[in-house]
Amino acid sequence: MTAPERSIDPITASVILGALENIAIEMGYKLMRMSYSSIIRESEDFGTALVNARGEQLCESKQSTPLQSGPIPGYVRGMLRALDERGEEVAPGDVIMHNDPYGGASHGPDVGFCVPVFHAGSCVGYAVTTAHHLDIGCQTPGSTGIVEAFDAYAEGLQFKAIKVYERGERNAAVWQLLRDNIRISDLVVGDMEAQIAACRIGAERYVELIDRYGLPTLEAACTSLFDYSERLMRQAIENIPDGSYAATGYMDGYIDDPSPSRRNLRICVRLSVEGSRLTVDLTGTAAQVSDRPINMPLVGTVDVAIWLVLRSVLLDTEVYGDLPQNAGLYRPIEIVAPRGTLANPIFPAPTIARFVTGNVLSDTVMKALAQAVPRQVSAGIGNLKAIASSGMGDENRPWVHLEIFEGSYGGRYGHDGMDSVDTLYANTRNNPIEDVESHVPLRVERYELREDACAPGRWRGGMGSVKELRYLTDGGTSVEADGFVYGAWGYAGGGSGIPGTLTLTAPDGTQTALPSKVPYRAVRAGERLITIGATGGGYGDPLLRDPQQVLDDVLDEYYSRETAERDYGVVITPDRRLDMEATERTRRERRKSQTSPPEPSR
User: Fold this and answer.
1) Helix axes 547-555, 561-568, angle to 10 degrees
2) Is the Cβ–Cβ distance between 369 and 245 less than 8 Å?
3) For residue 473, with 0-12 CB atoms within 10 Å meaning exposed, 13-18 middle and 19 or more buried, which class applies?
4) pLDDT number for residue 396
5) Are 309 and 362 in contact (CB under 8 A)?
6) Which of the 8 DSSP states describes residue 143?
7) What is the distance of C-alpha 364 from the center of its chain?
8) Mind listing the pLDDT tens digit for each residue in 547-578?
9) Could you tell me the end-to-end alpha-carbon distance of the chain, in angstroms, rounded to an integer?
10) Element holding 139 (H helix, E strand)
């Protein structure tokens, strides 16, 4: 697709934008409805997008997760490089599979499928889907919780621009390879075929759109939309005072490991603002862990973790409404990440467990932004858990279940933190209990909000969830989590969040506390896995919280009367009424001995 020279009126550009977005959304719903596994069908851990011939994203499916849709341009660029190195070209009827974390993919289990779109004999773009698959042939079952892979080769099958269909002909050998090397291959291959079908629908709709408006008009509209998104981001950056804003975040790493190089790992972020340009420098971030898979691909994870926060904070939809999600948004942003660090590892350092590392990165970018735009950020987030459960079922057939256990957001100016939701670039949905229990031998015995654990603040931190899984048959589990050591950061006088926990309880009641990263371990029938989610940080001085809000929280059983008085200075009588006289007296006494940070002014 060559750069157009013609201009276009904004109404036509807007109509074409709506059509492009509807194509991506249709692709997403088709994929959801055709998928076999709950991680795609229920959790919506997938992405769909249209990309032009230069590898620039035109639109994305907004009901999907940023960690799936965001990397799609990188998938396409990496795929095209791999094909070029082998002397191959794309052709009509091709379907290309790609999951190389060092070639644009987010990590190995997020497999991309790409259908080149041809019009009048020329390739004009690509319809692409990505999705998280239940198993990718790793050394242990599943594709989350793989926290002990020695190198990239131990993480499962690697697909570097493999044509699963070539000029319309199905490559039977590749599909047989998949079936022979992936556990629960019926589900995984079924999901892959759903991805291909969604791509083909997207390609067909894209050609119809070109036929309707003509290629020159479509190209001009896309160029106009790119420029519009870029202008919005540049204007938002210009509103930040020029300067440098730095923050450091920490992740647990492997807290039970004797080597200091694998635990208490540092993520460093420095934001430098100059006019309408913003540089994100990750110099100082801990060195890569060469034999553990918590390293983050620079393209596919690091860039998406950064873009997501900058886009969400600087161009908040509450203010700006829906924006064109395209390549123009990121033109003013430069990312610097030294090679050989967690944020830019060197092959074959493993990357499959990059999920929680990237959440810490996003959270640390938020922490740095708080110095520049304090009323636009939230306090620290409570990190997530990704847990794989597995075992052998009837006729000695394996089963695998993947689930992302929610975290929580910190409070933000004017709003309490969101409770028990997937945070930042995850953004997946929780898995319905009925779906879990009807497909795998697990019983959900408890699923509720974590009580009396809110980080105090003028706007309190969000609550995590408590979930208890009982294994009905012998099986196994593996866990990828973080935030068991470091609580979410509070802001402007708000309290820190409370870390998460994970406990394995035997039928006789014996409890074993587990760390945040658990390599595959056997679980016996009757044992229960109890997960308690981390809570978000508080925002602002708790003594400024409206006493009526505190009473409402107590009545809703978010926390106790005792916590209300201890954290907020709000006195509530035994019959659950607000004692304003005692509250004012208590708060007055507290303020005499307390120095609170100033209220954020912008």
Assistant:
1) 150
2) yes
3) middle
4) 86
5) yes
6) S
7) 14
8) 999 999 999 999 999 999 999 999 999 999 99
9) 43
10) none
Q: Is the peptide bond before 109 cis (omega within 30 degrees of 0)?
A: no
Residue 288 pLDDT > 50: yes
Read off the pLDDT of residues 2-57 as tens digits, 9 standing for 90 and up.
Answer: 444 457 899 999 999 999 999 999 999 999 999 999 999 998 999 999 999 999 99
Query: What are the tokens at 251?
Result: 């992740």
Residues in the chain: 602
* Single-letter amino acid, residue 27: M
Q: Which two tokens stand for residue 88?
A: 């191959």
What is the SS3 assignment for 382? strand
- DSSP string across 520-550: EEEE-TT-EEEEEPPPPPPBS-GGGS-HHHH
Exposed / middle / buried, residue 25 (Cβ in 10 Å: 0-12, 13-18, 19+): middle
CA distance 348 to 293: 10
Domain ranges, ordered by start, for the chain: 10-227, 378-540, 547-592
Closest CA to 221 of 2, 1, 6: 6
Q: HSE (CB half, 13 Å, CA atoms) of 303?
A: 23
Give the whole-angstrom CA distance, residue 464 versus residue 449: 6
Q: What does residue 271 show for φ and ψ, rounded to 5 degrees?
A: -100, 125
Expressed in percent and rounded to 5, the helix, strand and coil fractions of the chain are 35, 25, 40
CB 130 within 8 Å of CB 47: yes
pTM of the prediction? Answer: 0.94
CA 81 vs CA 86, 88, 91, 194, 458: distances in Å = 9, 10, 15, 26, 51
| Contact criterion met (CB below 8 Å) for 188 and 178 | yes
- Distance, in Å, from the CA atom of 307 to the CA atom of 67, rounded to the nearest integer, reads 10
User: In Å, what is the CA distance from 4 to each residue of 15, 99, 219, 427?
Assistant: 18, 32, 6, 36
